Amino acid sequence: MRNAIAWLATLLLACSPSTAASLVVHVTRIDSHHGQLKVGIFANANGWPSDKGAITGQNVPLASIKGDDVDVTFANVKPGDYAVGRYHDANGNNRLDKNFLGVPKEQWGVSNNVKPHLRAPRFDEARFKVNEPSTSIEVELHR
């Protein structure tokens, strides 16, 4: 009887629909409407914060927005810990331009508005929790 109950419980868990949430990233302090805003979601430190490390991402053409902020919505995000990294690709070359010292020349930002001095933000500093049914975060762009 115990085996039948354990089997039934396993079957019910396997057949239950997976939960998902929406994540709204409110990006502020956009300094121009040239180019695009590139927003990526990262599930761990592997590849953080390069575009290649993101589990998903969106490119938002800035010519279509009004004002200096925009909401970027991601649907069907599994609840858990994530970090968001984004940058304003003002010249459309699909990368964050940096000077010879490695300092960004275009606007950038990460979740939790981490802005360390003389180094890139770490994944653990930018990590936040996504809960059901939705989570909203605000991220400022910096220079």
Key features of this structure:
single chain, three-stranded mixed sheet, 2 helices, mainly beta, 143 residues, Immunoglobulin-like, disordered N terminus
Description:
- It contains two helices and eight strands; from the N terminus they run αββββββαββ.
- The N terminus is likely disordered.
- By secondary structure, it is mainly beta.
- The longest helix is centred in the N-terminal third of the chain and has 14 residues.
- Helices cover 13% and strands 36% of the residues.
Write the layout of secondary structure elements.
Blueprint: H1 2-15, E1 21-28, E2 36-42, E3 56-61, E4 70-77, E5 80-89, E6 108-110, H2 123-126, E7 128-130, E8 134-140
Parallel strand pairs: 1-8
Antiparallel strand pairs: 1-4, 2-3, 2-5, 5-6, 5-7
Level-1 CATH class name: Mainly Beta
Q: What general outline do the C-alpha atoms trace?
A: globular
Using the 3D structure, state the CATH architecture: Sandwich
Beta-strand content estimate = 35-45%
When the domains are counted, the total is 1
Structural class: mainly beta
Mean pLDDT: 87
Radius of gyration, whole Å: 19 Å
* CATH third-tier fold name: Immunoglobulin-like
Helicity, as a percent range = 10-25%
Distance between the termini: 65 Å
Query: What are the secondary-structure elements, in order, as H or E?
Result: HEEEEEEHEE
Question: How many helices does DSSP assign?
Answer: 2
Low-confidence residue ranges: 1-17
What is the makeup of the main sheet?
Answer: 5 strands, antiparallel
Number of strands: 8
